């Protein structure tokens, strides 16, 4: 399918695309959701917990969009507050303690911008995740399933393997935000989408992601089982490989992967 | 805060380059954000100040207003005379997205500012104690971080780790550089990783947040210091105030995202006035130095 970057932006944002919980339900067994950051609160924009992948216990963390307005309000349109990132980090540290690999599903327009988010240190929360994930002694696989927006996405994206779905986008900022900063006109988002190079194909070519996961014709929403099956295959192959590495090797390779960008 | 900084007789601008590269022969007075002319108007209180007096007083006005200063002025204010050796001075961006107009704008800005990118980094000494140091310069693309700054910082932390030395970074940045897109975003992970490695080796990292520190810089190395200092009144935040106002549709409270606000909310260790910065950094280095003195070159 030959579609423009701007069409991909729109496709990636379609509410009928599979969300984080759809992947969790179909890929893992016995998922038990765990809540709260232990400092301030529970952020429903990020879902996290433990589950089995085949017979391997893993920690799963997903940014969660809603299907309708009511769900989206509860999930804050998948725009996490600092407590969301701190919850994610708490679960990752827990995974490290118990030697569980971590699987992250990225789907966010960006970290939330607001008074509370600033008061509670949005920048600090993201920064800490970046530094801590880099040194985590357990394998991490991240998949950008739809929208990977700015530092809010990267805070779950410092992984040994990073994948994108065929029509997913991953960028420094939303095309609208980018256009309003650089072209002083948010309506030039389509131009921005072209100039930003935010498609899976661009990022794979740059060597920023490790692979592209195929979607069914027309997009992931047309066949959930197909696309989620493909994601499962990738996780299956990578987990076995990453779990075979020594901790030092794992961390050094993760560091070099980002160091060389 | 020293209520009357004009009493300070010390000269703030002195020669700090140990072996000054040709490119830095520009007199400091030629730098773009230095107030021009004999008199300078303070944007804070509107008062007309004798420029020479302003320079002597670390570019702080009596009213508490801080003029933004260049990376070189900053280095001159905090480092020992003749101690600075710049590193990676010629390192520049390769325009990874081939972004329309960026290459030309980069060259133009380099010519205008005399800088190669928005960070000057190297090794120097404060109160006789050696340290690696990086200073951002907001006059270069708003101090935004692209591949050049990311690479310079990663190298800075790697070198410091090898030599078991501390790192001090002065931040002044609008965030990640838009024109380098996803590459700029990835610099956040890269630099944070280098900070983490340096930290795991038990070494000291101090950040000094100056006006403005926002976006991807706040969300990476700015907030990772063992000790985080800030200049009075500096704007520090993740999202810019304009973006937040637009998002939530309400006016922001007075003093929101200023250094004092961050101190109040527990994200800054200390607010340090410009005239006290060198002695504060010196004292902090000294408190962490007893382990190093036997095996490091103290200049």
Automatic annotation (TrEMBL), chain A:
A matching Pfam family: ACCA
InterPro entries, A to Z: Acetyl_CoA_COase_a_su, ClpP/crotonase-like_dom_sf, COA_CT_C
SUPFAM superfamilies (UniProt xref): ClpP/crotonase (SSF52096)
Enzyme class, broadest EC rank: transferase
GO cellular component, one term: acetyl-CoA carboxylase complex
Domain CoA carboxyltransferase C-terminal, chain residue ranges per copy: 1-241
Reaction it catalyzes: N(6)-carboxybiotinyl-L-lysyl-[protein] + acetyl-CoA = N(6)-biotinyl-L-lysyl-[protein] + malonyl-CoA
GO biological process terms held by the UniProt record: fatty acid biosynthetic process; malonyl-CoA biosynthetic process
Annotated localization: Cytoplasm
Signal peptide: none
SUBUNIT field: Acetyl-CoA carboxylase is a heterohexamer composed of biotin carboxyl carrier protein (AccB), biotin carboxylase (AccC) and two subunits each of ACCase subunit alpha (AccA) and ACCase subunit beta (AccD).
NCBIfam families from the UniProt entry: accA, AccA_sub, PRK05724.1
Family recorded in the similarity comment: Belongs to the AccA family.
Protein name: Acetyl-coenzyme A carboxylase carboxyl transferase subunit alpha
Protein species of origin: Herbinix luporum
Taxonomy of the source species: Bacteria, Bacillati, Bacillota, Clostridia, Lachnospirales
């Amino acid at each position: 399918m030959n579609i423009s970057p701007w069409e991909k932006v729109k496709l990636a944002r379609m509410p009928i695309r599979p969300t984080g919980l759809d992947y969790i339900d179909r890929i893992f067994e016995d998922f038990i959701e765990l809540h709260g950051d232990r400092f301030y609160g529970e952020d429903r924009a990020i879902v996290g917990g433990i589950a089995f992948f085949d017979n391997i216990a893993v920690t799963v963390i997903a940014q969660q969009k809603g299907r309708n307005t009511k769900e989206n309000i509860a999930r804050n349109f998948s725009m996490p507050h600092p407590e969301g990132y701190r919850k994610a980090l708490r679960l990752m540290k827990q995974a490290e303690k118990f030697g569980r690999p971590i699987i992250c599903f990225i789907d966010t327009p960006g970290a939330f911008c607001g008074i509370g988010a600033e008061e509670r240190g949005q920048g600090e929360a993201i920064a800490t995740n970046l530094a801590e994930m880099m040194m985590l002694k357990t394998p991490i696989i991240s998949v950008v399933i739809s929208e990977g927006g700015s530092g809010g996405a990267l805070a779950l994206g410092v992984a040994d393997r990073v994948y994108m779905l065929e029509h997913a986008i991953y960028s420094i900022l939303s095309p609208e935000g980018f256009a309003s900063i650089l072209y002083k006109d948010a309506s030039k988002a389509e131009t921005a989408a072209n100039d930003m190079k935010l498609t899976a194909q661009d990022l794979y070519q740059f060597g920023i992601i490790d692979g592209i996961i195929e979607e069914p014709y027309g997009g992931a929403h047309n066949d959930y089982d197909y696309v989620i099956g493909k994601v499962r295959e990738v996780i299956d192959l990578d987990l076995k490989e990453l779990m075979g590495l020594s901790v030092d090797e794992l961390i050094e390779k993760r560091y070099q992967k980002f160091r060389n960008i | 805060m020293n209520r009357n900084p004009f009493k300070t007789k010390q000269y703030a601008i002195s020669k700090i380059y140990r072996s000054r590269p040709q490119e830095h022969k520009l007199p400091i007075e030629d730098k773009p954000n230095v107030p021009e002319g004999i008199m300078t108007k303070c944007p804070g209180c509107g008062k007309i100040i004798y420029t020479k007096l302003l320079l002597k007083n670390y570019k702080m006005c009596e009213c508490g207003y801080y003029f933004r200063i260049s990376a070189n002025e900053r280095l001159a204010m905090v480092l020992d005379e003749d101690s600075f050796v710049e590193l990676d001075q010629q390192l520049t961006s390769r325009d990874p997205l081939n972004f329309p107009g960026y290459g030309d704008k980069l060259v133009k800005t380099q010519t205008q500012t005399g800088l190669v990118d928005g960070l000057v980094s190297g090794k120097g000494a404060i109160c006789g104690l050696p340290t690696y140091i990086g200073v951002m310069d907001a006059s270069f693309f708003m101090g935004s971080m692209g591949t050049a700054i990311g690479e310079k910082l990663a190298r800075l932390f790697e070198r410091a780790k090898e030599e078991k030395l501390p790192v001090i970074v002065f931040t002044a940045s609008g965030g990640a550089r838009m024109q380098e897109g996803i590459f700029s975003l990835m610099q956040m992970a890269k630099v944070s990783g280098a900070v983490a490695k340096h930290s795991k080796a038990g070494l000291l990292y101090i950040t000094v947040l100056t006006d403005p520190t926002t976006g991807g810089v706040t969300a990476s190395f700015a907030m990772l210091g063992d000790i985080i200092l800030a200049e009075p009144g500096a704007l520090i935040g993740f999202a810019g105030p304009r973006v937040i106002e637009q998002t939530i549709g309400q006016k922001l409270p007075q003093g929101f995202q200023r250094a004092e606000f961050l101190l109040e909310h527990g994200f800054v260790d200390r607010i340090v006035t410009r005239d006290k910065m060198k002695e504060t950094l010196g004292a902090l280095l000294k408190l962490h130095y007893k382990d190093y003195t036997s095996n490091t070159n103290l200049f």
